[in-house]
Amino acid sequence: MEIKTFGDLIDWTRQLHAHLAECLHESAEKHDNERASALLDYIARHESLLAKTVAEFEKQADPKALQTHLYDYLNHKPFKPGQACDTRFAKLDFDDIAREIFAFHDQIMDLYDSLIGKAEIEEAKTLLEELLALEKHEAMQMSSQIGRMNDI
């Protein structure tokens, strides 16, 4: 997928969350450790819901913002639909899984944050700020839940 517009970026983000959910679900089924498998399953469900939420942003966003071109798009690897799942999570322990997931979300938040300052129209900037707030909220919610799971 080539990312040329803010709409493409949002679609890429949605696909990325959906793909991660699928991969985490596959990894959960293969993991030997019950606790790690439960974590993977929880995060997979969370990522799936996040993909649906991002899709709603896409539906409700200002068309002007969605059609705005990204000229200073950072070198992020475009996501290719149908890409094979990375099931390395099936070999990671609880803490490593959490670390990987938070690193993933940090990358998305860093991308949005860097693009906010480069948005040429207010509608695009607002859209990115809302998406960044969503990602931050979801990461905090996930962190809280994972913390509770870790305490058990």
Explained architecture:
With 152 residues, the chain is an all-alpha fold. The protein has a single domain (6-151), classed as Ferritin (Up-down Bundle), CATH 1.20.1260. The protein is 72% helix and 0% strand. The chain has 5 helices and no strands. It has helices spanning 6-30, 34-60, 63-66, 94-116, 122-151. α1 packs antiparallel against α2, α2 (34-60) packs parallel to α4 and α2 packs antiparallel against α5 (122-151). The longest helix has 30 residues, at 122-151.
Describe the secondary-structure layout.
Layout: H1 6-30, H2 34-60, H3 63-66, H4 94-116, H5 122-151
Helix pairs in contact: 1-2, 2-4, 2-5, 4-5
Question: What's the quick description here?
Answer:
By secondary structure, this protein is mainly α. The chain has five helices and no strands.
The end-to-end span amounts to: 41 Å
Tally of separate helices: 5
Return the average pLDDT rounded to an integer: 87
CATH superfamily: Ferritin, core subunit, four-helix bundle
Radius of gyration: 16 Å
SSE pattern, N- to C-terminal: HHHHH
Task: Characterize the biggest β-sheet.
Answer: none
Anisotropy-based shape: elongated
Poorly predicted ranges (pLDDT <50, ≥5 residues)? none
> CATH architecture, please?
Up-down Bundle
Q: What number of structural domains do the residues give?
A: 1
Structural class: mainly alpha
- The CATH topology assignment is Ferritin
Q: How many distinct beta strands?
A: 0
Helix content: over 70%
> What is the name of the CATH class?
Mainly Alpha
Give the amount of beta strand, in percent: under 5%
